[in-house]
Amino acid sequence: MSSRTIPSLFAAAVLGTVALASAAAPPESSPASQDPVARGRYLVKIMGCNDCHTPWKMGPQGPEPDMSRELSGHPQDVTLPPAPAAQGPWVWSAAATNTAFAGPWGVSFTANLTPDPETGLGHWTPETFVSAIRSGRHEGQGRPLLPPMPWPMYRNATDADLRAVFVYLQTLPKIRNRVPQPIDPPEAN
Asked: Do 168 and 44 touch, CB atoms closer than 8 A?
């Protein structure tokens, strides 16, 4: 190969990479921005909802979300022992399912976000969902949404985006899974 061939091949590789990257970039007006279900699915995926609301299982590469239970919250059939005490810099802990968390607030369990009418969001409305995220309260008026739920950040989403998330959640398979109620922290002596 001559010394002129290598720069030519390098230039061609760079131009090809730039062309592929440009082709892979989503258009400004993607379907996800126009179709509420597609937009909601996109937002659920990038906002990490499955990280906590989908129970984790051990997979071939280590822990992974169990997508057969997608967004169904803490499994009702998983009974946990008392949470470990916070010590030193470790002020909170999580269960192996990544759906139960303990800290100064007590113990929180991630909610069932499927449209099951008895154990999930089946009887919620878009307004109820938006109100819950904006206020940080269950159904917009009940108990506080507990850590590690990042509602203080999510409340900054537009109404249209929060409604799109809700519309997408309503398309999921209904999973009957009654999540336990939060456990208050032990009283200080």
From this structure: yes
157 falls within a domain: yes
Q: Are strands 100-103 and 106-109 parallel, antiparallel or unpaired?
A: antiparallel
Q: Two tokens at 84?
A: 């470990």
Contact partners, residue 182, CB within 8 Å, separation at least 6: 105, 106, 107, 108, 109, 143, 146
- pLDDT grade for 15, boundaries at 50, 70 and 90: very low
Instruction: Tell me if 2 is assigned to some domain.
Output: no
10 — pLDDT class (breaks 50, 70, 90): very low
Is the pTM here over 0.85, yes or no?
no
Q: Which domain holds residue 153?
A: 36-78+93-180
Can you give the C-alpha Rg of the chain in angstroms?
22
The total number of structural domains that make up the chain: 1
Query: Which residue spans within 2-109 are E strands per DSSP?
Result: 56-59, 62-65, 93-94, 100-103, 106-109
Q: Is residue 9 part of a domain?
A: no
Sorted by sequence, the CB contacts under 8 Å of residue 137 that are 6+ apart come out as 131, 143, 144, 145
